[in-house]
Structure formats: structure tokens, C-alpha cells
UniProtKB/TrEMBL annotation:
<keyword id="KW-0694">RNA-binding</keyword>
<dbReference type="InterPro" id="IPR020568">
    <property type="entry name" value="Ribosomal_Su5_D2-typ_SF"/>
</dbReference>
<dbReference type="InterPro" id="IPR014721">
    <property type="entry name" value="Ribsml_uS5_D2-typ_fold_subgr"/>
</dbReference>
<comment type="similarity">
    <text>Belongs to the RnpA family.</text>
</comment>
<protein>
    <recommendedName>
        <fullName>Ribonuclease P protein component</fullName>
        <ecNumber>3.1.26.5</ecNumber>
    </recommendedName>
</protein>
<comment type="subunit">
    <text>Consists of a catalytic RNA component (M1 or rnpB) and a protein subunit.</text>
</comment>
<keyword id="KW-0255">Endonuclease</keyword>
<keyword id="KW-0540">Nuclease</keyword>
<dbReference type="Pfam" id="PF00825">
    <property type="entry name" value="Ribonuclease_P"/>
</dbReference>
<keyword id="KW-0819">tRNA processing</keyword>
<keyword id="KW-0378">Hydrolase</keyword>
<comment type="function">
    <text>RNaseP catalyzes the removal of the 5'-leader sequence from pre-tRNA to produce the mature 5'-terminus. It can also cleave other RNA substrates such as 4.5S RNA. The protein component plays an auxiliary but essential role in vivo by binding to the 5'-leader sequence and broadening the substrate specificity of the ribozyme.</text>
</comment>
<dbReference type="InterPro" id="IPR000100">
    <property type="entry name" value="RNase_P"/>
</dbReference>
<dbReference type="GO" id="GO:0004526">
    <property type="term" value="F:ribonuclease P activity"/>
</dbReference>
Length: 118
């Protein structure tokens, strides 16, 4: 994803944490905050408790980014959101990651209703 679609600064992360709403399932937590902007922005956090090695953590982040790329046309453009991986996310493959993200993003109201599961 391009840099304009990313939340990188600590202050922006903290703003979404402090003022946003959260929704979770077993594998991911999403904090989301409505903004007046041309497209969505996302921050991804995968802690050391999720994947003990950098290789595992980076793989989870790649799966999340690829899922978001495939879901991009259906994501609400006026939203900043953070995706935080839970410990059980390291058991998922690409298809499982996408299914879980669709589930939690639908709960958060970030996706259009006509999303295909795979």
C-alpha cells in the first residue's frame, strides 16, 4: 500500500486509540475513527507475543496488507483504523486471515455489505 494509506506516527496511532471505537474477534482487534479525508488510512500492529520471530510477524503483516489490498474498493474511505493481531493470528494462513479480517471489519461497519468471503 502507498504511504498515503498508512498511519505511521505515534500521535496518529494514539488519536485513534483514544477517540476511536473498538471491535474484536478471536484473531484481530480493530480501532476505527471517522475522518474527513479522500481515502482510508490503516495502521498495523503485530507484537512480539504474537510472533516470536521477525519472520513470523512480517508474514502476518504481509497477509493483512494483501487482504486489505483485495478489499480496498469496499472499505469506507473516510476512516482511520488500526489492526492489532492477537496471539492466535499466527496460526492463520492467507485465506484464514482474510476471512477473519472481513468478519471483524464487517462488525466495525467498515465494509460494504456485498463482500465475498474469499
Amino acid at each position: 500500500m502507498r504511504k498515503s494509506y498508512r498511519i505511521k506516527k505515534e500521535a496518529e496511532f494514539q488519536d485513534v486509540f483514544d477517540h476511536g471505537q473498538s471491535v474484536a474477534n478471536r484473531n484481530f482487534v480493530i480501532y476505527h475513527l471517522r475522518r474527513d479525508q479522500p481515502h482510508f488510512r490503516v495502521g498495523i500492529s503485530v507484537g512480539k507475543k504474537v510472533g516470536h520471530t521477525a519472520v513470523m510477524r512480517n508474514q502476518i503483516k504481509r497477509y493483512i496488507r494483501q487482504s486489505l489490498l483485495e478489499l480496498k474498493p469496499r472499505i469506507d474511505p473516510q476512516t482511520d483504523f488500526l489492526i492489532i493481531a492477537r496471539h492466535s493470528a499466527n496460526q492463520l494462513d492467507m485465506v484464514g486471515t482474510k476471512k477473519n479480517l472481513i468478519h471483524v471489519m464487517t462488525l466495525a461497519g467498515l465494509l460494504a455489505d456485498d463482500v465475498d468471503i474469499i
